[in-house]
Design brief:
The chain is about 80% helix and about 0% strand. The protein is built from nine helices and no strands. The protein has helices at about 1-15, 25-35, 45-55, 60-80, 85-95, 100-115, 125-135, 140-165, 170-199. The N and C termini lie far apart (about 55 Å).
């Protein structure tokens, strides 16, 4: 367990290091893409590192992160749909996420859209939701629509805080990011429901 913890810390530091290298936008896109299907470090790590260094570019970074994450979610869906036994199951087992995978199956049976919309704000890694969506044959449009709502909500909230308050907001984000984003997405979902009801 200690060896795994050290490995994850080193991997996190490696990801953060891209903030000081040329082509950081592409690195952010790549990390966001692969995290949605198999990579263990969330793109928030690099997004925050970039926003700390360049707060006025935060929204640009959030857009890059959002596009990469949504497209990566589509790739995770494809893995679950076509290659679950060959690729998807080994990913789930490698991270010890079998119980979370079963929990996601239950969530999908209740409301797949809502489950994916809140996926980024639960302790269950987003990759479990994307792979499971393919494996359980959740409609592809549901995955895309819910991801397009929830992933930008998370990343643009981080960007907005850095843009408004600068690097000093980092400690607050590290502590309360999950609570902030749950509330933000909840407002978005309620707004969507209100529009559907009024129309």
């Amino acid at each position: 367990m200690r060896r795994i913890s050290v490995w994850l810390r080193n991997l996190k530091a490696w990801v953060e290091g891209f903030a000081q290298k040329p082509g950081a936008n592409w690195s952010l896109f790549g990390i966001a893409f692969i995290e949605s299907s198999f990579f263990p470090i969330p793109p928030d790590v690099l997004l925050i590192a970039l926003a700390v260094s360049f707060p006025k570019k935060s929204f640009r970074y959030a857009l890059v992160c959002s596009v990469g994450s949504v497209l990566g979610g589509m790739f995770g869906y494809f893995i679950g749909l076509e290659f679950y036994d060959l690729v998807g199951r080994p990913i789930i087992e490698f991270y010890g996420l079998e119980q979370q995978y079963l929990a996601v199956r239950q969530l999908y049976q209740e409301n797949a859209f809502a489950a994916i919309a809140i996926a980024g704000f639960t302790p269950i890694p987003y990759k479990v939701f994307t792979i499971a969506a393919g494996a359980f044959e959740v409609p592809f449009a549901t995955l895309v629509a819910a991801s397009a709502l929830s992933r930008p909500a998370r990343f643009f909230l981080v960007a907005a805080l850095f843009y408004a308050f600068g690097p000093s907001i980092k400690a607050l984000i590290d502590k309360y990011l999950e609570a902030f984003t749950v509330g933000f997405v909840a407002l978005g979902v309620l707004g969507f429901i209100a529009i559907r009801w009024l129309v």
